Amino acid sequence: MINRDTGITSLPGIGEVRAAAFARLGIFTAGDLVRHYPRGYQRRGDIRAVRDAVPGEPCAFLLTVGTAPTVRTMPGRGRMTITKFSAYDESGKIEISYFNQPYRAKSFNLGDTFRFWGKIEIFSGRRQLANPISEPYTEGVPLPEFVPVYSLSEGLTQKLMASSVDGVLAAFARDPGYKDPVPPEIREKYDLCDRLTALRRIHFPGSYEDIESGRRTLVFDELLRFSLCISLSGKGSSVSPAAVMEDADELAGMFCMSLPFSPTGAQRRAIADIAKDMASGRRMDRLVCGDVGSGKTLCAEAAAFIAAKNGFQTAFLAPTEVLAAQHYRNLTKVFEPLGVRVGLLTGSTKAAERRKLLEELRSGEIDVLTGTHALLSEGVDFARLGLAVTDEQHRFGVRQRTMLSSGGDGLPPHILVMSATPIPRTLALMLYGDLKASMIDEMPPGRQKIDTYAVGSGYHERLIAFIRRLVGEGRQVYVICPAVGSLEKEIKDEERVTGQLLDLSDIGGDSGIKLKSAVEYRKQLKKELPELSVGILHGKMKPQEKDKVMRAFADGEISVLVSTTVIEVGVDVPNASLIIIENAERFGLSQLHQLRGRVGRGSAKSYCVLVSDAESEQAKKRLSIMKETNDGFKIAETDLQMRGPGEFFPAPDGSAMQHGALDLGLASLCDDTGLLEAASEAAKALLADDPRLEKPENAALAGSVSEALKGAYDALN
Ligand code: ADP
Ligand code: MG
Questions:
Q1: 298 CA to middle of ligand 1, Å?
Q2: Kind and range of the H or E run holding 208
Q3: Which residues contact 446 (CB under 8 A, 6 or more apart)?
């Protein structure tokens, strides 16, 4: 019997290797799998005539094989083979080719009909379809109208994902013990379908209406549990005791005075909120939310200062080694003159140094320990932990944060979370009250709009001249490439992984564009700009190497840094004033905004150049939004609208809402405000009737809520 908690290795066709690939997507159980919603759909039921197809746009064709496939080995190109044949519909003929798949020749027999999905390209006047997906077609036997497209990790295919989901849904349907957690009266009142139907519809819709109705039900379901969790936990968490930090206000004031600049009004308000929380004797559980570059770190530093001067230690978690090292440098600079001692612990800290650090941590010599999730590992014992800060917390899972749940004096530490995902203030207030979220809605002074341009790769020479000029003026430059290496295989891998992501109607026909590689690009730049020092940074480098490069860039020894997205979150080098993003079509809007936020952090006029040869309307629209606005909130909203369901949106209070049963997988707190209101109304009505969800008819719901609460709140309380 398969139920939600069945491990995915118990599903047919999934062994250790595939399980590891699923694990990379956060899928461990059958329940996780059905909550891995499609990123989009291919509407293969919408058959086009060959003659009407727009080149470059993926679509479906119904074609009959017109010539027997031939397999050719390309001369001088390794062992590359091309399998070729022609196929036709009533409107015309087309050439179909498959690269390096000679076995395909056997599948296409003369006269057989297939439904193909792919992009038509025109080569020397002839229509071609390269590497299309094919499904055998038999008259009178319908093929699915929509085919789901999932985010994948290496080692998985769309087919495997879809058939696994299908198998699990079928098993759920056979399970007599399966209970829909949403009571039937509520489903009826709000016009929802049952959960299994909703899951079927979202994964395997027959129509757009199916997608909408499935999504509506699942979103309501998520939001209902979300509302219940907030109501049920609100009582508990607000009274959770924590260390009282004395003189918090005065200390915060002292800290602000020690800075070389004066904090913005928004920063001051956030710091005042924090000081009040920390002095209250109740546990702080605060989210500091603000756009990139709004100066969130400062607020966390004020909190750490308050803790340190009260004799409590702070754990300062960063999502990457680069960021941890940067925090370490900043914290040291800010704190050293104030007598607050800072340490850095990451996965690459050497054993001897680590031993010394841990010793100093246990003895209380270190006040602030910054680092990656290495902070959460076995043997890291704080003498008196009083505060846990997480930066860009959505990269951390609940399970990891459980490790920080016990603090000094037998009390849990205060929690401060910084998030760069903008959330409308009213919405945050509605959900959390003004007690939990501080909005940094004001930029430090002197920030200018980052001028953003979208250009084709033909502009390369002009960009080189631009780099030369800016560096001549003493500035520094980032160049972002989507791929790391020049190795054919690596690019192919990358293309296979991301290529599938982009094999989507929402991104259109740009997946054939060659990816720029950071390694190659740097080589080229060294030739083009021999007088400049050009560095490189990517995820395959050792952490120490990465840190060394970042340090050299921060110190101005490197003028141009070619990098993959490892620099995406939070990296701060105020002297950098130009960022060039190659293959800009490959990145999501919010990611582009994050990347762009790497410049414009100092007083110099800053620029962002998005380089793309993408032709599709979607890609053009995305890039033009980047040109129009610097407002992170507006961009996040557009991103959600354009990329649709499945796009992740973290919980405003920073607690672990994104995991397990509380996963806001589909719901968007921006777009679904109507449903959110309905769900919180339903939650209120439910709780009015059954305050602790103890009635038998609410058992299924109570079960899934308490599981979510366990995950989300036990970790923090
Ligand atoms: P983010 O919110 O993206 O984490 P940071 O905390 O990294 O932003 O701050 C961005 C930059 O702005 C840093 O260089 C920081 O020193 C600087 N900064 C922060 N607050 C102010 C301020 N009030 N006045 C001037 N510069 C500031
Ligand atoms: Mg930051």
A1: 7
A2: helix 208-238
A3: 603
Whether domain 451-629 has CATH 3.40.50.720: no
Q: Are 606 and 451 in contact (CB under 8 A)?
A: yes
Question: In this predicted structure, what is the pLDDT of residue 637?
Answer: 66
Q: Provide the pLDDT for residue 620.
A: 86
Nearest-5° angle of CA 265, CA 269, CA 272? 135
Categorize the per-residue pLDDT at 641 as very low, low, confident or very high, splitting at 50, 70 and 90: low
Spatial CA neighbour of 23 closest among 2, 9, 12, 37: 9
pLDDT, position 235: 43
Ramachandran bin of 497, using left for φ above 0, alpha for ψ from -120 to 50, beta for the remaining angles = alpha
Encoded tokens for 676? 């959110």
Under 8 Å between Cβ of 532 and 560: yes
For residue 564, how far is the Cα from the chain centroid?
15
Structural fold of domain 44-144: OB fold (Dihydrolipoamide Acetyltransferase, E2P) (2.40.50)
Q: Which CATH architecture has domain 249-440?
A: 3-Layer(aba) Sandwich (3.40)
pLDDT in tens, 537-594: 987 888 778 888 988 998 999 999 999 887 756 678 999 999 999 999 888 787 788 8
Please give the mean pLDDT across all residues of the chain. 82
Torsion (CA) 582, 583, 588, 593 in degrees, nearest 10? 20
CB contact at 8 A, 717 and 709: no
Please check whether the two domains, 249-440 and 451-629, share a CATH topology.
yes
Q: What would the pLDDT profile of 420-443 be if each residue is shown by its tens digit? A: 765 555 455 445 544 577 888 888
Pocket mutation for ligand 1, best pick of 288, 298, 323, 633 (most atoms within 8 Å of C-beta): 298
For the full predicted model, state whether its pTM sits above 0.90: no
| Domain ranges, ordered by start, for the chain | 44-144, 249-440, 451-629
- Tell me what pLDDT residue 509 has: 40
Residues with CB under 6 A from ligand 1: 261, 263-264, 267, 290, 292-298, 420, 444, 570, 572, 574, 601
Taking CA atoms only, the protein residue closest to ligand 1 atom 25 is 444
Residue of 474, 469, 473, 494 lying closest to 484 (CA atoms): 494
> Please, are residues 24 and 175 in contact by the beta-carbon 8 Å criterion?
no
Rounded to an integer, the average pLDDT of 32-38 is 90
Per residue in 179-193, pLDDT tens? 888 889 999 999 999
Q: From ligand 1's centre to the CA of 570, what distance in Å?
A: 10
C-alpha separations of 715 from 232, 300, 404, 705 in Å: 15, 21, 8, 15
Ligand sitting nearest the alpha carbon of 601: 1
Q: How far is CA 610 from CA 3, 452, 561, 604, in A?
A: 47, 7, 16, 19
Calculate the alpha carbon distances from 532 to 481, 551, 577 in Å: 19, 17, 16
Beta-carbon contacts of 486 under 8 Å, excluding residues fewer than 6 positions away, are 517, 519, 520
Tokens of 488: 């054919």
Q: What is the DSSP string of 282-295?
A: BPPEEEEEE-TTS-
pLDDT digits (tens, 9 = 90+) for 150-174: 888 888 999 999 999 999 999 999 9
